[in-house]
Design goal:
Strand content: 5-15%
Largest sheet: 4 strands, parallel
Number of strands: 4
Radius of gyration: 17 Å
Shape: globular
Order of helices and strands: EHEHEHEHHHHHH
Number of helices: 9
Strand order of the largest sheet: 2-1-3-4
Number of domains: 1
Length: 200
Amino acid sequence: MIHNVYLFVEDYGHEAFLQALLERFAEEYQVDINIRSFSATEGHGKVISKLTIFIRQLQRDKEHLPDLLVVAIDTNCHKLVECRNEIDGVTQNIKGFVVLALPDPHIERWLLVDSVAFKKVLGEGCNAPDQKCDKDRYKQLLSQAVRETGTSPILGGMEYAGDIVEAMNLRRITGKVDSSLKNLITDLRNQFKRWKSDKS
């Protein structure tokens, strides 16, 4: 059985990171998935309004509901619980198959939390990121970390997202590194365990 997974993402970075993470879990749990991506740009407010429209369309076409919907939006310095509640309010009628990916504060930080994985991909490690609220801070830190390896970051470093995710030590990350990433990994792992159990 192939499980249909929809990604509703804020930008390319979220899509690249999540696609790699989903494919990694699919391989680990021997579950077949089909990923389809939907992107909504133009900032947090626009993303929420587009998500609301997207959810309405899904509810109208119940025959084609996905097995899993992953919604990815940066917290943008808002509290994690506030962002979760905001999206829960939009997705409450289909909540049973929704997983939230809420990088705190931005997706670029997730690529810097595992220095060993970063080194495996780019040849040099990176400094462990702090957790400060500052617009574009983590875009700059990721781009700088990539440049320091002697590589030119064509897409700000996000072009390495898939390889870094593949190299990550997910057990260590969920142990202590980043609570927003830990939540996502835990939720996805639980979903793939359920799918694997259904196969047995």
